[in-house]
Q: What sequence folds into this?
């Protein structure tokens, strides 16, 4: 089923017009600095820099980081071809992501999706469909929406690829990831997803999520997709948590990422 069949009346100009109209009725505040009238003002937007320089081919982490072990990374991310993230999880991008996830500022998703398009174009990916990382039924019910879907929808329209959110489901409500290391996180989320082989068999798939910490969630999704016959699977996220000698640099990163589950 193509994107236009699933969302027959939606196009990116229409989607943007809807948000412009909502902004006119309810003027937004910048998610980074609070400026009235902008969802993410030009000043904040310019502060979000694309990760550049030498990166790990597998997980996309800059190789300047301490203790990055490429062999461990390959062992950990067996089902994923690669993960790429636009920037580090730090203000103002982290503030915008928190607003999207916890403060119902869903209009920011369309603005942030532009970063994903830039990342996608830079990496010249050959994909057949876009799938947002699903939430469990319970989490979806509690939050009311899936932030990854809100990012993936305008993104898929902008790159003109179908979005297939029903092709991957999360049937297990996994416990918090806080305090778990990379291996424990992977065990925690493994077997939490199931994919529809009729939709994904033989296909190249792009997974979308807001933040990656160890990549365990994306890997668990990729494993389910592989089990259903998918070909190559790539993960794209807005931000990645900063990995240091002592674990993740900012405990908030862990909390925020853990609340995905
Ligand atoms: Zn701002
Ligand atoms: Zn790596």
A:
């Amino acid at each position: 089923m193509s994107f236009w069949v699933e969302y027959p009346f939606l196009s990116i100009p229409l989607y943007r017009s809807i948000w412009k109209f909502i902004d006119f009725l309810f003027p937004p505040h910048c998610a980074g600095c609070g400026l009235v009238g902008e969802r993410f003002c030009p000043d904040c937007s310019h502060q979000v820099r694309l990760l550049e320089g030498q990166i790990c081919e597998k997980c996309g982490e800059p190789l300047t980081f301490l203790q990055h072990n490429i062999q461990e990374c390959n062992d950990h991310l067996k089902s994923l071809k690669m993960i790429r993230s636009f920037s580090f999880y730090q203000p103002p991008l982290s503030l915008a992501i928190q607003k999207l996830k916890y403060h119902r500022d869903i209009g920011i998703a369309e603005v942030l999706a532009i970063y994903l398009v830039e990342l996608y174009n830079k990496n010249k990916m050959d994909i057949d469909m876009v799938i947002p990382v699903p939430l469990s039924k319970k989490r979806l019910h509690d939050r009311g929406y899936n932030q990854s879907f809100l990012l993936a929808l305008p993104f898929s329209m902008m790159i003109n690829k179908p979005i297939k959110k029903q092709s991957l489901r999360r049937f297990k409500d996994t416990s918090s990831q806080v305090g778990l290391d990379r291996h424990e996180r992977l065990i925690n989320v493994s077997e939490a997803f199931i994919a529809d082989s009729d939709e994904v068999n033989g296909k190249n798939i792009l997974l979308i999520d807001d933040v990656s910490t160890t990549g365990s969630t994306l890997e668990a999704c990729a494993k389910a997709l592989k089990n259903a016959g998918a070909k190559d699977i790539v993960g794209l996220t807005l931000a990645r948590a900063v990995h240091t000698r002592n674990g993740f640099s900012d405990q908030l990163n862990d909390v925020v990422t853990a609340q995905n589950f």
Remarks:
- The pocket of zinc ion (ligand 1) is lined by residues 30, 32-33, 35, 41, 43-44 (CB under 6 Å).
